[in-house]
Amino acid sequence: MATFIVLKVLLGLSAEELFGSKDSEISSLRQQLIDGENSFNALADEHNKLAAALSEKEAELARIKQSLDTESRHRLEQAVAYEQLKAEMAMKCEQLAVKEASLYKRLMELQTDSSRTESTFGQTSLRNIPKIPSFDGQPISFNRWIFGVDELFTNYPGLSDFQKRILVVDSLKGDARSWYDAEPDGNIDIW
Known about the structure:
84% of the residues lie in helices and 0% in strands. It has four helices and no strands. It has a domain of 62 residues. By secondary structure, the protein is mostly helical.
């Protein structure tokens, strides 16, 4: 019987030890489960924070992308407007060149018409110009005659050399006219 008691005591101790060991194992597992839940919750919180940060970064990236698209569109519109302005300026320069050529052509026509008018005017205006006093070749009256000719030509600067010559020849009389007629044209081609 004593063996039974000893065995019972041994078994009882073992059962108590076994119960205590299982109880501590259950407590340890319970603690591990609590620690696992805490780790899971911490990781879930970190995951949620990272997901929120990722969402913010994606939203920021979308804003930047939209801003970049807007800027690209704006620059493209500016480039198109610049090219249109260049084309418009080229067209206006071309129109200006055409107008300038037309103006020069018109100016040439006016100058041609003006020279025709001047020659016509010059021919008819000789009637309106006072006559040079006649010169008959006397040395005493020569200085007075030259002074009168110079004064007339100074007062009428628009006269051509041909017109001046006509006026002078018309005023020559007697010996002066004979001298003029005898002189070669090359010696008296301008006044």
